[in-house]
Amino acid sequence: MMQKWCGRCKNHSFSSGDWYRWICPYCSKDLTMQKASPAVIRFVLIRPFASFRFAFPDRQLNQLDENTA
In angstroms, rounded to a whole number, what is the distance separating the alpha carbons of residues 65 and 58? Predict the structure, then answer.
């Protein structure tokens, strides 16, 4: 993940790469010509909940417990 610092609004802008046009999401300044650096802020990725079958493999489901939506 790459980051650029916006001098106008004083915020970091993040992207997965710096190949294309880079616009600050806060103030819309064009940051394309600025040098990108690796992101130093740590992100916490949230994994979606595992289905009931994977979370509790030992339990048996009856048909009423299973979500069919």
Answer: 15
